[in-house]
Recover the amino acids of this structure.
């Protein structure tokens, strides 16, 4: 059953921060641009692999125009703080040469890093991907991005070294997740997202 891009998930971080998680929409351009401007130079570099101060308007249009089939994008926002443009986002693009795989990326606001935002977003796009016949996520992680590489490793992703970065492959099979803090946290989030999917199906039946 495909995800309904018009519905939102209400979830909380472990510290109680209330989040609204939904698919990105074209009208999100302004807050996406503002959220990017608030990222630290390091966070921008790790996400785009170059030193940039502003996002190209064409790239913003691409980010905000997912078809939710071959390009999927979700965003997490604070439910009550209008002054925070965005807490995090995750997206994937289906690979043309391998339609059961997709390249995945994450962005988390600096002040919310290390608080489980990426895990929550991974659970959402994981379940979304499975409904589309995608069974593997491929990530590209710069050598300098030690935290991201450690996270993938703790989940049980396979990795291959390239000249400038690591290529990670995560099989979307919960039984293959490591029994680590990262893996167990993801299992909890996956169960929450599946529960939401079942509620959504019940509403439609």
């Amino acid at each position: 059953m495909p995800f309904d891009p018009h519905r939102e998930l209400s979830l909380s971080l472990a510290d109680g921060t209330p989040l609204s998680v939904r698919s990105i929409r074209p009208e999100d351009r302004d807050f996406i641009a503002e959220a990017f401007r608030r990222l630290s130079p390091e966070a921008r570099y790790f996400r785009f692999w170059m030193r940039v101060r502003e996002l190209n308007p064409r790239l913003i249009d691409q980010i905000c125009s997912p078809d939710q089939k071959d390009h999927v994008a979700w965003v997490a926002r604070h439910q009550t703080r209008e002054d925070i443009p965005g807490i995090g986002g995750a997206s994937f693009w289906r690979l043309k040469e391998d339609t059961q795989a997709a390249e995945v990326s994450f962005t988390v606001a600096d002040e919310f890093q290390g608080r489980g935002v990426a895990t929550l977003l991974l659970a959402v796009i994981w379940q979304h991907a499975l409904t589309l016949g995608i069974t593997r996520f491929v990530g590209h992680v710069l050598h300098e991005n030690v935290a991201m590489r450690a996270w993938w490793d703790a989940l049980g992703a396979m990795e291959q070294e390239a000249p400038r970065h690591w290529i990670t492959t995560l099989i979307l099979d919960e039984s293959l997740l490591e029994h680590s803090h990262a893996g167990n946290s993801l299992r909890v989030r996956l169960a929450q997202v599946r529960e939401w999917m079942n509620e959504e199906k019940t509403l439609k039946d």
Summary: Residues 154 and 180 are 6 Å apart (CA to CA).
